[in-house]
Amino acid sequence: MHKEAIAELLDQKHDTLFNWLESQDIEKWQTGPEGKWTTGQQALHLLQSIKPLNNALSMPKFLLKYKFGKSNRELREYDAIVTRYQERLEGAKGMTFGPSKNMKIPKDADKDYLLNRLKVENKKLQHKVKKWKDKDLDNLILPHPLMGKMPVREIVMWTAYHVEHHTKILQNNY
């Protein structure tokens, strides 16, 4: 998938999420289905997922190469990334990683702040993807807590799907 198409996909997936979240009553922010994250926790989780990616894409490329290495395989297409993620999720069954582990429930007052931060981080990611060279998107890799090491292009495509995944969870449970 070309980087402009990936940026557009990120924009579309986030817009769908934002439109849904902004149409919900504030009472839903701190509630969720039995045993699932609240609406606020879903939004916080997405923010916690995109920020480290943006931070990594701001690092010097030679440092990323030194720290994580280079890809040694062919790139996966979007659908293959989605399938692989769904398989890994099935195997992980309820496990959470990093800052999303033992996550606090965001207060109602945090909603606007979290949504604004997520919007800003999404725009940053789109901008960074468009500015990166194709060879760097394809060859440099980053670690993913569930998927293992992935080329940057793949992890950005995964990010778009990740937003869709959580949007569907929200839409299907409210």
Could you walk me through the main structural features you see in this protein, from its secondary elements to its overall organization?
- The protein has 174 residues and is mainly alpha-helical.
- The chain is built from seven helices and two strands; from the N terminus they run ααααααββα.
- The protein has helices at 3-23, 39-57, 61-68, 78-92, 111-131, 134-139, 152-173; strands spanning 141-144, 148-151.
- A two-stranded antiparallel sheet has the order 1-2.
Keywords for this entry:
174 residues; mainly alpha; two-stranded antiparallel ribbon; 2 strands
Helix and strand layout, with pairings?
Blueprint: H1 3-23, H2 39-57, H3 61-68, H4 78-92, H5 111-131, H6 134-139, E1 141-144, E2 148-151, H7 152-173
Antiparallel strand pairs: 1-2
Helix pairs in contact: 1-5, 1-7, 2-5, 2-7, 4-7
Low-confidence segments, ≥5 residues, pLDDT <50? none
Major sheet: arrangement of strands: 1-2
DSSP summary: helix tally:
7
SSE pattern, N- to C-terminal: HHHHHHEEH
The radius of gyration over CA amounts to: 16 Å
- Can you give the helix content as a percent range? 55-70%
What is the molecular shape?
globular
Structure summarized in a few sentences:
Helices cover 64% and strands 5% of the residues. With 174 residues, the protein is mainly alpha-helical.
